[in-house]
Amino acid sequence: MSRVAGNSTAIRDTTVLMSALKGSMLVPAPGRGQYDRALSRSRRQAEQRERLLAAAAEAFALEGRNVSLRAVVERAGTGRNTFYEYFDDVEHALRAVRARTLARLENALEVALATRTPIERLRAVSRAYFEVLEQAPYEAALGLWRERESEAL
Question: Are 104 and 136 in contact (CB under 8 A)?
């Protein structure tokens, strides 16, 4: 009898949860974790890639260039197979992090250079540069780390 009562409680809790979500339903993913079924597949893939890039940047910045694949996927909360769907190896992920950071910086600087006077441009470029680095602290640390490494050679 207690088993039947427990099942009805679980069904009621699930019904309450589903009615609370209204429109966005989180369901277990085929592998690990959960995903939002309301998002398109391409959107979920883009978010997954961004999560992997952020994890890779953090791992590179904190652990150095010889970071393991395991450290990256643990930070991202994914598996190794998911990582390999997007990147060939850890070095490929490092190049993707750099490309993403440079693209962000390039876009910010293009907007900043559109100001009128030279002093406004200088201020806008400086502000844009530091805002990008503030938004992506691990990428900034990674860039500084690479400069220090190349100076040592």
Answer: yes
Distance separating alpha carbons of residues 89 and 69, to the nearest angstrom: 8
**For residue range 27-86, what is the model confidence (pLDDT) as tens digits?**
444 445 555 666 788 888 899 999 999 999 999 888 887 889 999 999 999 999 999 999
> How far is CA 58 from each of CA 53, 71, 145, rounded to the nearest angstrom?
9, 10, 12
C-beta of residue 58 within 8 angstroms of C-beta of residue 140: no
Predicted structure pTM score: 0.64
| Neighbouring-strand partners of residue 4 | none
Which value, in Å, is the radius of gyration of the alpha carbons in the chain? Answer: 22
Half-sphere exposure of 109 (CA within 13 A, CB side): 10
Burial of 44-56, coded b for 16+ CB within 10 Å and e otherwise, reads: eeeebbeebbbbb
